[in-house]
Design goal:
Layout: E1 2-6, H1 11-22, E2 26-33, H2 37-43, H3 47-62, E3 66-70, H4 72-88, H5 95-112, E4 118-120, E5 125-130, E6 133-138, H6 147-150, H7 155-160, E7 161-162, H8 170-180, H9 201-209, E8 214-218, E9 224-228, E10 250-255, E11 260-264, E12 276-284, E13 293-298, E14 306-311, E15 325-329, E16 342-347, E17 350-359
Parallel strand pairs: 1-2, 1-4, 2-3, 4-7, 8-11
Antiparallel strand pairs: 5-6, 6-17, 8-9, 10-11, 12-15, 12-17, 13-14, 13-16, 14-15, 16-17
Helix pairs in contact: 1-3, 1-8, 4-5
């Protein structure tokens, strides 16, 4: 088997490479360069140089060819443009989900063509072929599990995807890296949005959307309590960065056309209850949507799941139309549900797919 390994310079993908080499797999490592000049200007240095330093060190250790693949234009067209458009419209995007679908298992597939049988990465997830269909299952590490970010992958994409760490926890990965004395065995995990690294998301938004003064209004009374620099810096449920005394204050709504951010100290009151949403643009990994049944959902990356019901009908029983599904949380609510977020659907350990929130 010939395998392309997506090497980030972190410990996860490095252990993937080490394991495959030890199994006798013919491996070539690739670093996807997606940093943009606008972002680098904020930092004054090139973060990818540190990434490639570690990536090259691992490849030299195992005698594996290493290539840097320029992906900046594809990344801008397929991920950055989407992120900016979603934020400008007042929604909450997830660039990491698009990065996996459009870049790592999309544009990169196009780049390498048929030269490799599989593309391996350090994702914490498992792919199994069952009765001729590729299915996606969670990692045994509920905190690190990354199926949420992989929920939009198609059968074709999953057929070539290989996740050699899918059966491990993060603690076990660190132990394995220590045992092999990998050059980056102690390197901290990267945090935040995939293409930003050390750059704060707020700085990225400022570079692309600028600043524009608007009103901070109390949700219940409409009273103007202060100002902000742009609704795009805020998301539903946000508590930090509001800058007002007498709180805690939470963002509960936004009016993008008038650049107004509504805040409240009564975040959990009944009038702000959020336990139902409409999702659209869904991807169902095996091709079949789960209908009129109980499922589990994730509203964001992390271990938290909600018991829920999925239906193609609205609350009055009327059909929602092709590709639309109503998600009803059954036991609890989540005030942080926001337009543009992705809802990912689970049946036990299996990830079935998901879609973006069109209406709350």
């Amino acid at each position: 088997m010939k395998c392309a390994v997506l090497l980030s310079g972190g410990v996860d993908s490095s252990l993937v490479l080490a394991r495959l080499v030890e199994q006798g797999v013919e491996v070539t490592a690739f670093y996807l360069k997606i940093w943009l000049e606008d972002e680098l200007a904020f930092l004054g240095s090139c973060p990818w140089e540190e990434d490639t330093f570690y990536a090259r060190a691992v490849c030299e250790r195992f005698g594996v060819p290493f290539e840097v693949v320029p992906m900046q234009q594809a990344y801008y067209d397929r991920v950055i443009a989407y992120t900016i458009a979603e934020v400008r419209a007042g929604r909450t995007p997830n660039p990491d989900i698009l990065c996996n679908q459009q870049i790592k298992f999309g544009a990169f597939y196009d780049c390498i063509g048929e030269r490799f049988d599989k593309v391996a990465s350090g994702h914490y997830a498992q792919v199994r072929e069952i009765e001729g269909r590729y299915r996606l299952f969670s990692s045994p590490d509920p905190i690190k599990d990354q199926t949420y970010f992989l929920a939009l992958l198609s059968q074709k994409q999953l057929s070539k995807a290989l996740f050699p760490l899918g059966d491990l926890t993060k603690a076990e990965v660190r132990q394995e890296a220590e045992k092999r004395n990998l050059p980056n065995k102690m390197r901290p995990d990267s945090q935040g949005v995939c293409f930003l690294g050390k750059l704060k998301f707020s700085e990225f938004l400022k570079a692309h959307l600028g600043v524009r003064e608007g009103e901070l209004r109390e949700f219940e009374t409409g009273t103007v309590l202060g100002t902000h620099e742009g609704f795009w810096f805020y998301t539903i449920g946000q508590r930090q960065g509001i800058g007002l005394s007498g709180g805690p204050w939470y963002v509960v709504a936004k009016e993008s056309e008038k650049n107004i951010v509504f805040i409240s100290r009564h975040y959990y009151d009944a009038d702000k209850k959020r336990d139902m949403c409409l999702i659209s643009g869904c991807n169902w990994i095996t091709g079949a949507a789960p209908l009129e049944r109980e499922i589990e959902v994730k509203l964001r990356h992390g271990p938290k799941r909600y018991r829920a019901y999925i239906s193609q009908k609205d609350v009055s029983g009327e059909p929602l139309g092709e590709g639309r599904h109503r998600i009803q949380l059954l036991d609890e609510q989540d005030q942080g549900i926001a337009l543009g977020q992705f809802v990912v659907i689970y049946d036990g350990a299996e990830c079935l797919g998901g879609g973006a929130i069109e209406r709350v």
